[in-house]
Amino acid sequence: MSETTGTGLPGSPTALFDHALRLHRSAPGEPLPRDGEPCPDGESHHRQGGPEAPEDRRSADKDVARILDTHFATASALPGELANAFHDVYIPIQPNEHITAAAERADRERCRRTGRWLVRHGTDRCSVTVGLALVAAVGTADDIPLIQTIGLLSHHFGPLAAHAFETRPGGAEALLWLAERVTGWGRVYVVEALCRLDDPAARPWLLRRACDGDALNGYFAGEVAMVARLHEALADLDSDSELVDHTGRLLHLMSGCGGMGITLAHYPHAGVVLEAHAHHVGSLGPTVERYFTVAALAQHLTTESLDDAGCTAAQREALRTTYLEVLDREEWTRTARAGFAAGDNRMRWLADHRAPRLRLRAFSQDEPK
Asked: Is the domain of 138 the same as that of 258?
């Protein structure tokens, strides 16, 4: 990571980069707490508001491009003169052709220096976003630590950071570093970029760690299963409990992600992957997460058809029976009841919404919970 430090003079605004770097250093291997919120510019930015997105999104950033063209047309203009130049124009957080074109019209080295300065010293997300777009357009491998650091504030800067790595050599490694340290929407942006990149080096991570349990994982769970070729990795389930658990997470997410991503009903390998998971999860010791995943899948198999995925009604019933046999084992029942007694929300949700239909021992009215 970049070793550039500093938080500005006492009483001066804090650079967003410094804010991200400070939080990152407190827990280098973890996502920033609350995605780094509140950011130093949060109060002033929300108070001032900003221009609304244009109806024609293709025209977005034309005003930004004009400001950049004017700036770069003056040879003596310094990067700092752009620090407060973008408050009154709409700036989308996604990659934009107009800023990229402005970057390519300018002298590349000067554009690169300007982008770096705005990312490193900008105290407002407007200027930092523009700087990151410039670095994404004309940056070099030397900019990877800079992009990774600001990308940790992933809800806002994740799309451009992911785009910057997706479009240059060695991007998979940089994306994997960031993927381990972002959550929520930031994880969606980064994992989707990894899927588009389809680098074989990323497949082991995608198979075991892409989904962190957030509901937003539903946007990419099916794509991860396809790109990482989950159906080809089933032989590894014998000796890889992490892969078993993540496979269950992928299947569970696909069972309820209609309108977000690829569902189980449209996953062409649903039958074979469910069969492998049902066989292997029962050989592992019970945990609350495993119980919840298996129960959720059993419920899905009870109520939904997988005919479009090539899983017949007979296969679906056999899978359901296998899952229910696992759930009714004494040690699994004790684990579920302990989770319920401890107030685990997943177990309480099962008890309220799913267990009555599945008639699970763990939540039977005839036995103590």
From this structure: no
